[in-house]
DNA sequence: TTTTACCCTATAGTTTTAGTAGATTATCTA
DNA sequence: TAGATAATCTACTAAAACTATAGGGTAAAA
């Protein structure tokens, strides 16, 4: 299942991508427009800022704004930041690899075999989609 | 993330698919061979039996055995039984569809758009793999 | 001094991953 | 045929992890 964190994060990004002249939008406004718990959204926007997608401005007239062009925001990056590994199993993860402790033979593992294909197919989708494609 | 339930279930299925003449294998043996908690595996095998993948036999010489040919066991079915919906969001699920309560416009939703592609790509993988392909 | 993002903590709820205890059924043996 | 044994079956419980959200205070910008 996609976490609400990711869902909300994606919605916030697409919302901000539509804003004219990238002027700052307040958390409250995004939350209201997208039906998101404001406090939850707060933490999501924070991680999006820390990971280089958004900029922020404090005080009156402040808020969040996109600091990249939507065309340059790949879904692979967004998903990894918000949702974590794209692979469904650590032993087939490119960026978060970990050996299964219960599995002696990775090459002979049926789960490994299947999940490798699933990872590749998901990866292809995410690589072929930028934020601009979702608008 | 893939649940351990699914992971163990897949491992058990591939293990049983390799058994000569489909003779019954005890839970304990599968659990030991695949490093799985026996009691947990017990409940997994039960749902696999209830869903028509396995047969069981009680008493001495009893155990579980495959009742279909591995070539006839599609991963779509297995995944839906063990893991649940293949879609990451209910609003793009074929078998478990549900409307998002926070989302007024499904067609205009960026998450919907993206997850539809992810679902289709995953579905293609699962459709192209039977249990036999994992051996 | 108001407005906004920032930061930390707590918590209710849910899901996952088991573990415990015993009932039930089939087979084997005396 | 009776009883012992071997296995699945069932239900309940529980610990742990994760998710989603709320509260309250701090810092910075206007």
What is the number of beta strands of chain A? 2
CATH T-level fold name of the largest domain in chain A: Arc Repressor Mutant, subunit A
- Label the CATH architecture of the largest domain in chain A: Orthogonal Bundle
Radius of gyration of chain A: 17 Å
Major interchain interface with per-chain residue totals? A-B, 32 and 31 residues
Q: Which quaternary structure do these chains form?
A: homodimer
- CATH class descriptor name of the largest domain in chain A: Mainly Alpha
User: Helix content range of the residues of chain A, please?
Assistant: 40-55%
Q: SS-based structural class of chain A?
A: mainly alpha
Shape by Cα distribution of chain A:
elongated
Identify the strand order in the major beta sheet of chain A.
Answer: 1-2
The tally of domains of chain A stands at 2
The mean pLDDT of chain A is 96
In the CATH hierarchy, what is the superfamily of the largest domain in chain A?
Answer: Winged helix-like DNA-binding domain superfamily/Winged helix DNA-binding domain
* Low-pLDDT windows of residues of chain A: none
Largest sheet of chain A: 2 strands, antiparallel
Number of helices of chain A: 5
């Amino acid at each position: 299942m996609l976490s609400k964190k990711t869902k909300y994060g994606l919605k916030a990004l697409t919302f901000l991508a539509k804003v004219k002249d990238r002027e700052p939008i307040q958390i409250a406004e995004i939350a209201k427009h997208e039906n998101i718990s404001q406090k939850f959204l707060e933490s999501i926007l924070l991680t999006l800022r820390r990971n280089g997608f958004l900029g922020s401005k404090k005080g009156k007239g402040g808020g969040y704004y996109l600091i990249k062009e939507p065309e340059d925001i790949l879904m692979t990056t967004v998903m990894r930041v918000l949702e974590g590994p794209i692979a469904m199993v650590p032993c087939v993860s490119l960026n978060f690899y970990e050996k299964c402790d219960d599995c002696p033979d990775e090459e002979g593992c049926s789960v490994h075999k299947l999940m490798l294909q699933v990872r590749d197919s998901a990866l292809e989708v995410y690589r072929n989609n930028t934020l601009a494609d979702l608008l």
